[in-house]
Amino acid sequence: ASTPVHCSEIFAQAWEPLFDMAAHSAPAMPSEMPLWSGLRLLVMPSVAGVAASSAPLRDVEIALIRKTVEETRGNVAKAAQMLGISRATVYRKLSQRG
Fold it and tell me: Other CB atoms closer than 10 Å to residue 54's CB: what's the count?
């Protein structure tokens, strides 16, 4: 049996091994993957300027949010909608890393 892990420990890890692990244990069809109520599967386009690296997932996440806000010329509401998160989440994530 596996031991429960707090999500902050996962977000502190480099993202590449997480995707490698998911690729080896994920079902063949994404639609077979169980989701919690309210969550949905979305195809995420690749983002120019966010290079593949071994950076922690939270840093990649913040870079994606910043890039989206820049692309929307500072329109946080539009950026949040594009990312599928709330405006409050955009502001909170951007304040986490100066």
Answer: 9
